[in-house]
């Protein structure tokens, strides 16, 4: 059958009602192929093909602008029976191969509260993967940050499981539109870096089911075709051989039809343990599978039927994505093309989160500001996030300093790194406006490796954050310079929450920029000077004191994750945050009215009117929360259960409708091992942040 003929029965033609049904329709064909394979060939399908020599060479690349995953890493394949290879490309802020488009980190994209935009980002990433010759994207990272100091918080969308699920699902759908396999990671309970290879994470069943797994299931329900296991242990067993997670939860309970791959190099600890507990592919090299797995089958320690099941899953999935009709051609010219860069810029625009704007200091006036002081070493740094597996090498990066200089070409821009406080004060005094750029970089947070973890690395890289605030010298800089000039704004760079109670009163304006990607400096400048109206919302709460967060030991051998974290913990303990979850200001103003909450069959529909009452076009994110004070069991005060980003012209008013499945109101009963819906009156809230003062309220009954 020709590829053209096959395309008549593809998901691209929408003959099948879902991705899953399409893939399952290929089961018999996959079984037939597998039946013709030798044991060695079947095990080969399950094996990463990067050799030790190639891996050592990759990690020892001398160039500072080439990633160690600079080409799609291969696994499996069978030429004799036309089974395609798996060709892995990493993420999640873009493709780590070559010179790719660099988007803002997912935490910044979480601040957009815009799944439609995230879907488009997924499409662009997939197009560039195809242009590199890849077919697999290992960048759908939805781990929940139990504590905001987790070094890889920047790789996820925020602290809330509902937000993680919505954004991750959108990325999955976007990526797979272009026949690239979307891999969701790291399954599961992976939110510690320093101890990630050894820590045993424990949780009770309600915490597991209601807090740490729902967003993974959302991505599976969206059609994700692959899952990556985590390095850590869960309840005493390494996740790469955790039959409860990989077989019982993922494949049996959720009906996942794709395949599971290991995290790289250290993700498999035992041949028999992984092969008999649901791990289908060892990546990126072969150490425990290959000849060892073949021998284990011959010795009767692993049944060949388990090998067959893994092989069928792999073949079925690869066929589904290879046979499907491509919506377009994928030439090298697509990589970092102008349209893709424009989308990265738009993502940064939507992410910009204005936290403080006393006396409407921002936006600065282009006409009045003739001399600008830009202070802080991060202002002149290409600072786009972690330098580990997620690092992208774009063709260029616009720094905040370059962005301001380019935008304000007719003004004088004075840059100083801020080392000498007295000199910084003098520069600030002479300026019409002052921009202090402070925060974190890859040395402060990111993927963690110690020198003795792997000989290729000569120093510690990234890791969990010991300090949740700014560096001491940056705090001193803000306190000294901030009061000098009334037109001063702080721009924060970082991947998660930054404590700021110590210094926030020293400056009138604070803009959270996250790690904003290759066009981040352009967008920071345009936001400061009013070409962009900030509409981002915090995807995490910012506390006043670190003591308000869950207790954490980044080097623990064992840790128990509790039911509450983030805004749910603050709500439950009646602790007022410095800035609430979902919070963000605008240069315009919005008025909400006429809240309504109705139950329509299997959905709750929350609605309200939203009006732009200011003088500038702007975005607002309307958020729907459900409260559980009438519950017979311990539940959060409220949970995010829907959101909608809207763009309004001055004076424009629209009605926003947000739909939430009734299914999302259930709680997990460990006594019955089932999800249950309570027959109670639920509180309902709709508004612009999780703060009660920003919400209109009502109730409903199922």
UniProtKB/TrEMBL annotation:
One GO MF term attached to the UniProt entry: beta-glucosidase activity
Record-linked PANTHER family: BETA-GLUCOSIDASE, BETA-GLUCOSIDASE B-RELATED
Organism: Thermoanaerobacterium butyriciformans
Name of this chain's protein: Beta-glucosidase
Enzyme class: hydrolase
EC number from the UniProt entry: 3.2.1.21
This protein's record includes keyword Hydrolase: yes
Keywords tagged on the record: Glycosidase, Hydrolase
Lineage: Bacteria, Bacillati, Bacillota, Clostridia, Thermoanaerobacterales
Domain Fibronectin type III-like: 620-690
Family: Belongs to the glycosyl hydrolase 3 family.
């Amino acid at each position: 059958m020709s590829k053209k003929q096959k395309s008549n029965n593809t998901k691209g033609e929408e003959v099948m009602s879902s991705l899953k049904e399409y893939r399952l329709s290929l089961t018999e064909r996959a079984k037939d192929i597998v039946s013709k394979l030798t044991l060695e060939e079947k095990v080969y399908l399950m094996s990463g093909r990067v050799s030790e020599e190639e891996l050592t060479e990759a990690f020892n690349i001398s160039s500072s602008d080439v990633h160690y995953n600079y080409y799609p890493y291969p696994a499996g394949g069978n030429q004799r029976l036309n089974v395609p290879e798996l060709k892995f490309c990493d993420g999640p802020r873009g493709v780590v191969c070559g010179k790719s488009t660099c988007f803002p980190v997912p935490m910044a994209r979480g601040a957009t509260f815009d799944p439609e935009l995230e879907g488009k980002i997924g499409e662009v990433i997939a197009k560039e993967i195809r242009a590199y010759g890849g077919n697999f994207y290992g960048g759908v990272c939805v781990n929940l940050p139990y504590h905001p100091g987790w070094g890889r918080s920047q790789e996820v969308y925020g602290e809330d499981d509902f937000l993680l699920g919505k954004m991750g699902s959108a990325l999955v759908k976007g990526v797979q539109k272009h026949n690239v396999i979307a891999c969701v990671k790291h399954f599961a309970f992976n939110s510690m870096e320093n101890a990630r290879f050894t820590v045993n994470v424990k949780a009770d069943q309600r915490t597991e089911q209601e807090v740490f797994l729902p967003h993974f299931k959302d991505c599976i329900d969206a059609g994700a075709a692959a899952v990556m296991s985590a390095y850590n242990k869960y309840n005493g067993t390494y996740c790469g051989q955790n039959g409860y997670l990989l077989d019982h939860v993922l494949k049996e309970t959720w009906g996942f039809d794709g395949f599971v791959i290991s995290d790289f190099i250290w993700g498999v600890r035992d041949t028999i343990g992984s092969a008999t507990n649901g791990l289908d592919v060892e990546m990126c090299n072969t150490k425990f599978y290959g000849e060892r797995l073949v021998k284990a089958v011959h010795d009767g320690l692993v049944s060949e039927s388990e090998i067959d099941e893994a092989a069928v899953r792999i073949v079925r999935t690869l066929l589904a994505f290879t046979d499907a009709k491509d919506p377009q051609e994928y030439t090298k010219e697509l990589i970092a093309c102008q349209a893709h860069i424009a989308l990265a810029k738009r993502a940064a625009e939507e992410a910009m989160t204005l936290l403080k704007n006393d006396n409407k200091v921002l936006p600065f006036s282009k006409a009045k500001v003739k001399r600008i002081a830009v202070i802080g070493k991060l202002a002149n740094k290409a600072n786009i996030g972690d330098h580990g597996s997620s690092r992208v090498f774009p063709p260029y990066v616009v720094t905040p300093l370059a962005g301001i200089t380019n935008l304000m070409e007719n003004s004088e821009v004075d840059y100083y790194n801020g080392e000498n406080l007295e000199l910084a004060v003098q520069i600030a005094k002479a300026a019409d406006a002052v921009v202090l750029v402070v925060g974190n970089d890859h040395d402060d947070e990111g993927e963690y490796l110690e020198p003795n973890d792997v000989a290729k690395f000569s120093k510690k890289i990234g890791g969990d954050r010991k300090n949740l605030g700014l560096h001491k010298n940056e705090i001193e800089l803000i306190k000294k310079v901030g009061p000098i000039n009334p037109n001063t704004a702080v721009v924060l760079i970082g991947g998660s929450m930054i404590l700021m109670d110590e210094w926030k009163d020293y400056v009138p304006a604070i803009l959270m920029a996250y790690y904003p990607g290759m066009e981040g400096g352009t967008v920071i400048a345009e936001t400061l000077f009013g070409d962009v109206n900030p509409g981002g919302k915090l995807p995490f709460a910012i506390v006043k004191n670190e003591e308000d967060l869950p207790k954490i030991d980044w080097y623990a051998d064992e840790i128990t994750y509790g039911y509450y974290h983030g805004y749910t913990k603050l709500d439950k303990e009646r602790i007022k945050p410095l800035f609430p979850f979902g919070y963000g200001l605008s240069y315009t103003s919005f008025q909400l009215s006429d809240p309504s909450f109705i139950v329509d069959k299997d959905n709750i529909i929350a609605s309200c009117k939203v009006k732009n009452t200011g003088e500038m076009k702007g975005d607002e994110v309307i958020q729907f929360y459900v409260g559980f004070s009438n519950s017979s069991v311990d539940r959060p005060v409220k949970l995010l259960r829907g959101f909608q980003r809207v763009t309004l012209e001055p004076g424009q008013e629209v009605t926003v409708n947000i739909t939430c499945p009734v299914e999302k109101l259930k709680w997990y009963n460990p006594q019955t091992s089932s999800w249950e819906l309570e027959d109670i009156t639920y509180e309902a809230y709709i508004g612009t942040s999780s703060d009660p003062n920003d919400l209109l309220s009502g109730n409903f009954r199922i």
